[in-house]
Amino acid sequence: TNAVGDVLWGKLLAREGQFAYRLGQYERARLLLEECLPLFRLLEMQRETVFTLNLLGRIAYRQGLYKESEQWRQESLALCQKPAFPDGMVSALATLGHVSADRVYYDKARHFYQQGLEICERIGDQHNKARRLNELGNISWRLGDYVNAQKLCQQSLTLFRKLDDRQGIRSEEHTSELQ
Fold first, then answer.
1. Looking at the DSSP assignment, which residues form a beta bridge with residue 63?
2. CA–CA distance from 100 to each of 53, 97, 112 (Å)?
3. pTM, 2 dp
4. Which residue, 57, 91, 125, 160, is the most exposed by fewest CB within 10 angstroms?
5. What percent of the chain has pLDDT over 90?
Protein backbone atom coordinates (compact mmCIF):
# COMPACT_ATOMS: atom_id res chain seq x y z
CA THR A 1 0.00 0.00 0.00
CA ASN A 2 0.94 3.64 -0.36
CA ALA A 3 2.14 4.81 3.07
CA VAL A 4 1.70 8.52 2.28
CA GLY A 5 -1.82 7.87 1.03
CA ASP A 6 -2.60 5.82 4.16
CA VAL A 7 -1.31 8.61 6.41
CA LEU A 8 -3.40 11.22 4.63
CA TRP A 9 -6.49 9.00 4.64
CA GLY A 10 -6.08 8.28 8.35
CA LYS A 11 -5.66 11.97 9.18
CA LEU A 12 -8.71 12.89 7.09
CA LEU A 13 -10.81 10.26 8.87
CA ALA A 14 -9.59 11.47 12.26
CA ARG A 15 -10.34 15.12 11.39
CA GLU A 16 -13.80 14.17 10.14
CA GLY A 17 -14.33 12.21 13.36
CA GLN A 18 -13.31 15.25 15.41
CA PHE A 19 -15.81 17.44 13.53
CA ALA A 20 -18.58 14.86 14.02
CA TYR A 21 -17.76 14.76 17.75
CA ARG A 22 -17.97 18.54 18.04
CA LEU A 23 -21.34 18.45 16.28
CA GLY A 24 -22.59 15.86 18.78
CA GLN A 25 -22.71 13.11 16.14
CA TYR A 26 -21.11 10.56 18.44
CA GLU A 27 -21.90 7.36 16.53
CA ARG A 28 -20.59 8.81 13.28
CA ALA A 29 -17.48 10.07 15.06
CA ARG A 30 -16.92 6.68 16.65
CA LEU A 31 -17.15 4.89 13.29
CA LEU A 32 -14.69 7.26 11.64
CA LEU A 33 -12.21 7.05 14.49
CA GLU A 34 -12.45 3.29 14.73
CA GLU A 35 -11.64 3.17 11.01
CA CYS A 36 -8.48 5.27 11.28
CA LEU A 37 -7.18 3.79 14.55
CA PRO A 38 -5.83 0.52 13.05
CA LEU A 39 -4.11 2.54 10.34
CA PHE A 40 -2.37 4.76 12.90
CA ARG A 41 -1.31 1.71 14.91
CA LEU A 42 0.01 -0.07 11.82
CA LEU A 43 2.01 2.98 10.77
CA GLU A 44 3.22 3.49 14.38
CA MET A 45 1.88 7.05 14.49
CA GLN A 46 1.92 7.54 18.26
CA ARG A 47 0.56 11.09 18.48
CA GLU A 48 -2.35 10.30 16.15
CA THR A 49 -3.07 7.01 17.94
CA VAL A 50 -3.16 8.75 21.33
CA PHE A 51 -5.37 11.54 19.97
CA THR A 52 -7.78 8.96 18.52
CA LEU A 53 -7.87 6.86 21.71
CA ASN A 54 -8.52 9.96 23.82
CA LEU A 55 -11.32 11.12 21.52
CA LEU A 56 -12.89 7.66 21.54
CA GLY A 57 -12.70 7.86 25.34
CA ARG A 58 -14.50 11.24 25.29
CA ILE A 59 -17.20 9.88 23.00
CA ALA A 60 -17.80 6.85 25.22
CA TYR A 61 -17.93 9.17 28.24
CA ARG A 62 -20.53 11.43 26.57
CA GLN A 63 -22.59 8.35 25.76
CA GLY A 64 -22.49 7.21 29.40
CA LEU A 65 -20.24 4.25 28.58
CA TYR A 66 -17.90 4.89 31.49
CA LYS A 67 -16.17 1.51 31.56
CA GLU A 68 -15.45 1.73 27.83
CA SER A 69 -14.25 5.32 28.24
CA GLU A 70 -11.89 4.21 30.96
CA GLN A 71 -10.56 1.39 28.77
CA TRP A 72 -9.79 3.77 25.88
CA ARG A 73 -8.04 6.17 28.26
CA GLN A 74 -6.03 3.45 29.98
CA GLU A 75 -4.78 2.29 26.58
CA SER A 76 -3.90 5.88 25.69
CA LEU A 77 -2.13 6.38 29.00
CA ALA A 78 -0.03 3.24 28.49
CA LEU A 79 0.96 4.43 25.02
CA CYS A 80 1.82 7.92 26.31
CA GLN A 81 4.44 6.46 28.61
CA LYS A 82 6.48 4.96 25.73
CA PRO A 83 8.17 7.47 25.23
CA ALA A 84 6.69 10.15 27.45
CA PHE A 85 3.92 12.12 25.74
CA PRO A 86 2.79 14.56 28.46
CA ASP A 87 -0.13 16.36 26.79
CA GLY A 88 -1.69 13.02 25.87
CA MET A 89 -1.23 11.87 29.46
CA VAL A 90 -2.94 15.00 30.81
CA SER A 91 -5.93 14.39 28.56
CA ALA A 92 -6.18 10.70 29.46
CA LEU A 93 -5.85 11.41 33.18
CA ALA A 94 -8.56 14.08 33.00
CA THR A 95 -11.10 11.70 31.51
CA LEU A 96 -10.16 8.97 33.98
CA GLY A 97 -10.81 11.57 36.69
CA HIS A 98 -14.19 12.49 35.17
CA VAL A 99 -15.23 8.84 34.91
CA SER A 100 -14.16 8.19 38.51
CA ALA A 101 -15.98 11.28 39.80
CA ASP A 102 -19.17 10.35 37.95
CA ARG A 103 -19.00 6.91 39.55
CA VAL A 104 -18.51 8.60 42.97
CA TYR A 105 -14.93 7.31 43.33
CA TYR A 106 -13.76 10.69 44.55
CA ASP A 107 -10.40 9.59 45.97
CA LYS A 108 -9.55 7.90 42.68
CA ALA A 109 -10.68 11.00 40.74
CA ARG A 110 -8.55 13.23 42.95
CA HIS A 111 -5.55 10.98 42.30
CA PHE A 112 -5.98 11.25 38.50
CA TYR A 113 -6.53 15.04 38.60
CA GLN A 114 -3.51 15.49 40.90
CA GLN A 115 -1.30 13.49 38.53
CA GLY A 116 -2.51 15.65 35.64
CA LEU A 117 -1.85 18.83 37.62
CA GLU A 118 1.73 17.72 38.36
CA ILE A 119 2.37 17.08 34.67
CA CYS A 120 0.86 20.47 33.74
CA GLU A 121 3.15 22.20 36.22
CA ARG A 122 6.17 20.28 34.90
CA ILE A 123 5.52 21.15 31.23
CA GLY A 124 4.16 24.68 31.85
CA ASP A 125 0.63 24.01 30.54
CA GLN A 126 -1.26 26.81 32.29
CA HIS A 127 -4.68 26.21 30.67
CA ASN A 128 -4.85 22.59 31.72
CA LYS A 129 -3.38 23.48 35.10
CA ALA A 130 -6.34 25.82 35.68
CA ARG A 131 -8.75 23.05 34.66
CA ARG A 132 -7.13 20.50 36.98
CA LEU A 133 -7.26 23.00 39.87
CA ASN A 134 -10.97 23.50 39.15
CA GLU A 135 -11.59 19.74 39.09
CA LEU A 136 -9.62 19.22 42.30
CA GLY A 137 -11.68 21.98 43.90
CA ASN A 138 -14.90 20.27 42.84
CA ILE A 139 -13.71 16.95 44.26
CA SER A 140 -12.68 18.63 47.52
CA TRP A 141 -16.17 20.15 47.72
CA ARG A 142 -17.82 16.76 47.17
CA LEU A 143 -15.63 15.30 49.92
CA GLY A 144 -16.69 18.05 52.33
CA ASP A 145 -13.31 19.81 52.40
CA TYR A 146 -14.83 23.24 51.76
CA VAL A 147 -11.80 25.31 52.74
CA ASN A 148 -9.53 23.48 50.30
CA ALA A 149 -12.27 23.55 47.64
CA GLN A 150 -12.52 27.32 47.89
CA LYS A 151 -8.73 27.72 47.78
CA LEU A 152 -8.36 25.49 44.69
CA CYS A 153 -11.28 27.10 42.84
CA GLN A 154 -9.89 30.57 43.59
CA GLN A 155 -6.48 29.53 42.23
CA SER A 156 -8.22 28.19 39.13
CA LEU A 157 -10.24 31.37 38.62
CA THR A 158 -7.15 33.57 39.10
CA LEU A 159 -5.25 31.55 36.50
CA PHE A 160 -8.17 31.58 34.04
CA ARG A 161 -8.34 35.37 34.39
CA LYS A 162 -4.59 35.73 33.90
CA LEU A 163 -4.89 33.67 30.70
CA ASP A 164 -7.97 35.64 29.63
CA ASP A 165 -9.75 32.28 29.21
CA ARG A 166 -13.37 33.45 29.12
CA GLN A 167 -14.79 29.94 28.89
CA GLY A 168 -12.74 28.88 31.91
CA ILE A 169 -13.79 31.99 33.84
CA ARG A 170 -17.49 31.32 33.11
CA SER A 171 -17.09 27.68 34.08
CA GLU A 172 -15.32 28.55 37.33
CA GLU A 173 -17.79 31.31 38.22
CA HIS A 174 -20.66 28.90 37.54
CA THR A 175 -19.00 26.27 39.76
CA SER A 176 -18.55 28.84 42.52
CA GLU A 177 -22.25 29.73 42.32
CA LEU A 178 -23.21 26.08 42.77
CA GLN A 179 -21.05 25.77 45.85
1. none
2. 18, 5, 9
3. 0.64
4. 125
5. 50
